[in-house]
Specification:
- By secondary structure, the protein is α+β, with helices and mostly antiparallel strands.
- The protein folds into 3 domains: about 140 residues, Gcn5-related N-acetyltransferase (GNAT) (Aminopeptidase, 3-Layer(aba) Sandwich); about 30 residues, no CATH class; about 200 residues, 3-Layer(aba) Sandwich (Aminopeptidase), CATH 3.40.630.
- It has 9 helices and 15 strands.
- The chain has a 7-stranded mixed β-sheet, with helices on both faces.
- The longest helix has 18 residues.
- It is globular, with a radius of gyration of 24 Å.
- It starts with a helix and ends in a 29-residue tail after the last strand.
């Protein structure tokens, strides 16, 4: 085993000579258990499509002779890991002309860190249990450290024991957060959005202002949110407000909005994953395929019933990812439901199969997110590791030991 591992060369991915061999490994790694449903991903000939929009990224391959036997992807960005109170003071003149008073107010400001993310670790089935995955992880972590990353994290399914054991038992990661992936099908009919809610599309600059002012202290909030919002894959940011408060034609801008917001509102952005990769469900029985097809036939025959037909997930389909969810007020859940109805209709117009999002398990607005339990993941396991002890603990201490907040910001570039 030691000699086999010594023969493994780990190097940077070369798109000119590695693409086809990497795709071959991806395909054999995605063969699901016999008789069970499996989700397959088609990267459309671009193995780095899921990291290339990050500020810094790298893909490594493991090679034995002329054969690629594994690969790993990683990216680095600066995010919010906590918050601290900062005193903002100003002079205030009293009625006595000879005296000034100093008023100080406490304002929450984000504490940031450089964070690395590992995704797309694959090892060919015929070369597993040889330490190749561990070698790939260690080499990627070396690159993280060389580029100043303080923490590294991965996301995996709770029941993926091989992945969980590799990272927690052998690589020093610990369970950190368990957000929920919520997925809703895009039906053949439009969803009716409440007429008591007005939805306004914000410009990228307005969206950035709103996010930085109200959500910059949210855990995992990316400091380069402007790059996310201005990316060609970001289809827009949408704000839901009670009807009669604000109108698209007379929208005063986020500055004025935040100075006098309505009692309840909600916001989210939409990312077009369909232009990056597609998904396909395989392994379904003939009975399940027939039942799904029957719902579509009945829905087309009786469209006025607006039956929840099942889209054709057994052929490649695209999806939209809703990110940056936030809001407040007693009607915040209602506003969120309207936004996701709008997002559904947008996805329908663009030919998507599902709308997906990921939120903290404690997110108050999650109750307004429509989703099918059979397509969703109640607990997506995020594991984190501190990459070095020589980093400053800063204002929040060791992030890996911090308690979860109500919300997290899930970066669409890493979904």
């Amino acid at each position: 085993m030691g000699e086999g591992l010594a023969a493994v060369v780990v190097r940077e991915f070369d798109p000119n000579k590695d693409r086809e061999r990497v795709e071959a490994v991806e395909k054999i790694c995605e063969v699901g258990p016999s008789g069970k449903l499996s989700l397959f991903t088609d990267l459309r000939g671009d193995p780095i499509c899921r990291v290339r929009h990050s500020p810094a990224f790298l893909m490594l391959v493991a090679e034995m002779g002329d054969e690629i036997v594994g690969m790993i992807r990683g990216c680095i960005k600066t995010v919010t890991c906590g918050k601290k109170l900062s005193r903002v003071g100003k002079n205030s003149h009293s009625s006595n002309k000879n005296s000034d008073t100093f008023q100080a107010t406490a304002k929450a400001v984000p504490v940031c860190t450089k964070l690395a993310y590992i995704l797309g670790l694959r090892v060919s089935p015929s070369h597993r249990r040889m330490g190749i995955g561990l070698k790939l992880v260690h080499r990627m972590e070396d690159w993280f450290r060389d580029n100043g990353a303080e923490y590294s994290y991965i996301a995996t399914e709770n029941d993926n024991l091989a992945s969980v054991n590799l990272f927690t038992d052998k690589c020093g990661y610990s369970n950190f957060r368990t957000p929920s992936i919520l997925v809703n099908p895009v039906f053949a009919h439009r969803v009716e959005v409440s007429k008591k809610v007005t939805i306004i599309q914000l410009s990228a600059s307005d969206a950035e202002y709103l996010y930085r002012r109200r959500f910059s202290t949210t855990e995992f909030f990316p400091r380069d949110i402007d790059s996310v919002l201005n990316n060609k894959l970001s289809l827009g940011t949408f704000l839901a407000v009670p009807r009669g408060t604000y109108h698209p034609e007379t929208w005063p801008g986020s500055d004025r909005f935040l100075s006098d917001p309505p009692q309840s509102w909600s916001v989210l952005s939409v990312w077009n994953c369909m232009d990056v990769f597609t998904l396909e469900i395989r392994g379904a029985s003939l009975i399940k395929r027939t039942l799904a097809k029957t719902t579509r036939i009945v829905d087309r025959a009786l469209p006025w019933l607006q039956l929840p037909s099942i889209p054709d997930f057994f052929r490649p389909f695209g999806f939209h990812f809703a990110y940056g969810l936030g809001g407040e007020g007693p009607q915040g859940v209602k506003m969120t439901k309207a936004l996701f109805g709008f997002a559904h209709n947008l996805a329908k117009e663009r030919g998507c199969g599902v709308v997906a999002t990921e939120v903290s398990s404690g997110e108050p607005l999650r109750f307004g997110i429509p989703h099918w339990k059979m397509l969703s993941c109640a607990e997506d396991l995020w594991c984190m590791k501190r990459l070095g002890e020589d980093y400053s603990d800063g204002s929040v201490g060791d992030w890996t030991k911090s308690p979860p907040g109500l919300s997290i910001f899930v970066d669409p570039r890493e979904f």
